[in-house]
Amino acid sequence: MITTKGFIAAALLASLLSGCASLNPDPAFEDVKRSAAERVAAGEVLWERDDSARALIDARVAELLSRALTVESAVQVAFLRNRLLQAELAELGIAQAELVQAGLLQNPVLSADVRFGMGVSGTGADIGLVQEFLSILQIPLRKRVAAAELEVTKLEVGAEIFSLASEVKQAFFDAQGSEQMLELRRTVAEATAVAADIAQRQHDAGNITDLDLANERALYEEAKLGLADAEVELFQKRERLTRLLGLWGGEAQWTLSARLPALPDQDPKPEGLETLAVSNRLDLLAARQRIGVAATTVSLNRFYGLIPEGRAGVASERDLDGAWSLGPSIELPIPLFDQRQAQVAIARGRQRQNEERFAELAVSIRSDVRRAWAELDASRSRATYYERVLLPLRRTILDQTQREYNGMLVGVYQLLQAKRDEVEAGRAYIESLRTYWESRVELERALGTELPLSGGLPPASPAPEASTPAQAPPHPHHHSE
Amino acid sequence: MDNEENKTSAFSRRDLLVSGATLAGVVLAARSAAGAENHTGHEGHVAPPAPSPSPPVDSKAERDGRYRPVVVPNGSTLPWKLVDGVKVFHLKAEPVVREFAPGLRLNCWGYNGQTPGPVIEAVEGDRIRVYVSNRLPEATSVHWHGILLPNGMDGVAGLNQRRIEPGITFMYEFTLKQHGTFMYHPHFDEMVQMGMGLMGMFVIHPKEPRGPEVQRDFSIMLSEWAVKPGTARPDTSEMTDFNVLTMNSKAFPGTEPLVAKLGDRVRVRLGNLGATDHHPIHLHGYSFRVTETDGGTIHENGQWPETTVLVPVGSTRTIEFVADAAGDWAFHCHMTHHVMNQMGHGIPNMIGVKPGTGDKKIATLLPQYMSMGTTGMGEMADMMGMPVPKNSIPMLGGRGPFGAIDMGGMFTVLKVRDGITSYEDPGWYKHPEGTVAVRAKKADLRRDGIKT
Q: What ipTM was reported for this prediction?
């Protein structure tokens, strides 16, 4: 007999066992926000779950766009406007819900049939109420798996946020450098225009041949073409940044601050960078977390094999002659053929896979870091060489050419050529400076965290807490740091 | 370093006939020391002109009273000593640094610290002995251009003598059998050695004075050089494009003026040892006679009247005239490129090109830019302050009493003055009233019906 008390007790037990998992993903988001803040100095991540904050966000974006964009303000705009980022954040809500789902009991099932006598009078009925009860024991493991999955999701979303920030920075420097170089290209084109103008006037006065005039004009026209090509290229780079920032319409008319920043005083040393990457890369941490998920799934499936589902309840029957009978009912599958041994093997296989993938990622990341640092170092050398050796040399050439022009020892075309060469060297320097900044973003991407401009390493950021302890796979080639 | 030795006093004709016994060896004075002996009371005596700063002079230098010594603008004569009746000279071929004009100092080769080398001066009949010490980095020799002498003294390395190796001293000795204006120069690797400045004049005075007395006797060696502006070394491989033209290795405004008193008979001996170019040397204000070549004296009936004497490469030409017109008279090569300093060739021709919008644009690209050459090159004369390559004098000119003199190179000035008592530079000519070309006055234009 099921008493009302007993029923209420069962219900309470069920709700207790289902845990306090709520559908609110805010705590998960806070973790993600914190890990983002540790890695990206500029920009706060905002999760728009409804339109209530829209006006505030619009105002903030308008304020940021009212000034020339810097790399920091660009990242902030992206965090506010990029829709893909918002789509990624929704994953948190989904994973959180999955966690809630993992803790839910199955619903009780009420079954009833009515039987009408065929050739005899009377109606019979079967009414049963069953509740799946064995899964109560499985819920803790299921929730562990779901919680681990939630951690993986948090890490992956964090990785996406950092990836977006890196992409925005790279697109920003790309566009900024291109804009600066375009200005210099304009100067070069102006110089050819001036030469062509002087040649035209020389020709009008009868002082040069048609051939010489055509040659000077050809230089000018070709420079104009090159300028047009560069303008198209800049337009494309701007559009890429606009896309990343999630802007359109009037907001797409943003301006950039005019100059690439100068080289910082020093770069981080290569020692310790690999260690930093391995402890900071969110995608690596996620890969490690996935191993744990797979390991817990193995346990879960082994448990399922031992303790499959079972239903218990109450069944009552009414005979055709109207007599009711009532009694308990139980359903238990007998693990005869299928002890979930295949599922366990599948889960083990996945675990092994995740372990290998994790190891591979670790190796790749280390190589990535080394390569990125080498490129940064090389790009710094190049930019410095331009600044210290080539640009001063070109200035000397221009100054000496001006002196020779003053003495009527060379003509104005040679002087303009010297000026063009100086500006071209300046353009190459800007390009090398842009390459430096892009290499720096690339190194930050490889490290999984921003680098301070002072040249040292960022303060060691702790690995985000996992709700289930990750099983560190004992691979010989994955040594502890 | 410029080793300009001092000039000696001039002597009257009477003194020429007196034997050397009445003359003591005169000590050539340095700038601040006591001056040379000044024989007052004789006509035509002048105090020695102020000498340029120089190292102490050989106090044993001697004088020969039989001639009035030549005046060497920006230069000097080679001192000698008499040893058993032989005039002994010492030529040292060596690297020298010379200031060709203010702002242009060149590393050259020369004799006795100068290019051209000091004038060798002697008298017909003298036996001379010239020691030649080679302090150059390569071998050399000395040829006596135009002089009649034993074949073995002629100085062609390999043909008449062994070459003089660096560090070695050779001895030349011969008796002078002629008089006139001659030259001396190396005859080994001449393109380089003469291109670097090794050359000099050789003046032989007649035993007995001949013809009308000459009061001012000048010696000028003409040379041409190719010096890339901004460098300090002549390019001796250049055959046709010379940009520094000199008289006694000086380019105007570095050339000293030729000073004469009104009424002086003036003789100018011109020699040309340049690589390629003959020079038509033109004198303003006079017509003169060409009286002599390096072949000898021209008979009076054959003397050619000229205002311009062509001095071919490898020749000397001597001219004479009476300085009967006072003033500052230009004396220069008439090749227009030879009176410009370090001109650039191959620059775009901007004459007649009208100004346009490009000029404004160019100012943003090149702040120091100035449009040049559209009205010719005369404006360069006023652009003295513009920065130019170091150690160069592109189109440098001089300053005159009426503004910039936009000449350079093979250009100097003959200054004829009345009533001067010394041959120092008398400054600019003070023109008598009404003898200077000035802007036409309105009254004159009206009277003569000239519409401007």
A: 0.79
